Amino acid sequence: MKYDVIIIGSGFGGLVCGHILSKQGKNVLLLERQAQPGGCIQSYRREGLAFDTGLHYVGGLAEGQTMHRLFDSLGLMKLPWHRLDSKGFDLVTIGGDTFALAEGYEKFVDTLAADFPKEREALLRYTKMLRETQELGLDQGSDQTNRGGSDHPNPSYSGGEISAGGSSYSGGEIGAYEWLTKNFQDPLLVNIVSGNALKMELRRESLPLFTFAHGQSSYIQSSWRLKGDGNMIVKSLTDDISHYGGSLICRAEVEELIEKDGRIVAARCRNGETYEADIFISDVHPTLTFSWIRQSQVLKNMFRRRMASLENTFGMFTASLTIKEGTLPYFNHNKFVYTRPNVWTFYDERDQKGDIGGVMISCRVPEDGSTFTRQIDLMTPVPWNECQQWEDSRIFRRSHAYNTWKEETYARCLALAETVVPGLTEAVESHYTSTPLTYRDYTLTPFGSAYGVRKDYRNLMMTMLSPRTPLPNLLLTGQNIILHGLEGVAMTATHTCKAVLGQFTV
What's the per-residue H, E or C state across 352-363? Predict the structure, then answer.
């Protein structure tokens, strides 16, 4: 059987593409190497509880806001979304002082200006930049191609300029850190407005302003948690795909994309099965995707070298905690705690003892109506070099030294979290940890990268990939392409689908 579209990988990007295209009447097949779909939005169960692997909160879901229309079209607004505290959806603690990031651009400014009255105008410029970035979206140049490896989509301001400190900068020509430090006079405020950005890699020398702004703006509009686990999203999307006539096969690991006459004609899986289609979409890291094409008349050596040399963002250490019943009240916000005002550099400043300088604390909404939570997640960035010594190991076959390192890292995360959640240590019943090695082995993401390919404003042409590739019927989607996170991946997937639907109409 030949399909209209084969999607490789069933992470959020692959599922969104599958939903959109099957709803449009295309005969879609998703191939997933794991036993269940979902990628980093899937959940796993321990002791009767479901734990998320990557989903924690989503922004802009209120009616009329950034993500409402898209999530509604995907059938996801019917899920039980729970709105976070409007007075402070995120609390940022730096050196013992806590600051609230409030919902709504005006309230956001007023709340921080109460502590930084001299920075009110800078805060207004900041929120203006966020709004303008959100309005520009991905349309600027997103339909350019990557043919030959020279063209690229540049989803930046492309001629539009944002003012900071009396000067104007093009969003594609300035980094986020430079913009923030030129806009704000107080370095502490730079750390505060960045302090909830563990949903991206805060890299001073490379992070584009566009990436930073898109990762922050929708959450100020409104922030939401799912009252339940991430598999609710996976099930909703896969059920709809099936309803629209699409198919999903798990334990189908692609190991080769077969090219003929300059086009991909089939995907061959490790189990020996071969699947044919007119169009192929990869939700897998580009480096791995292009390694599957062993013989090509189209892919130039320069393009292959470029894909192989892409840098990746850091990975994450995650501790999922089971909390004793009735011991810890639910808190309706996220907590971000840092020992020092070094939000942009703390993960690079860890000494040889592996001290933890910052951690995110996410609290699961009680599903039984209780005022007490049963689950909390702790997250902190982990540079690859910390776990590189075990890179040749695989899941369930790690060394004692690795497990010791995990427990020591967990203890340090817990101690830092305890400073803003008193009694947390005593409330923990059990815990489960994961590292960049875990994510690497489950998702095949190089180095267990949390946010995919590292975007660099100094070289957007080489680091900001297009959904299109040199092969006319092979497209890319997912967090490695334009933007990461649920919002970024969903928006990227819509652009991938536009390219697919355009090819069908040719």
Answer: CCCCCCEEEEEE
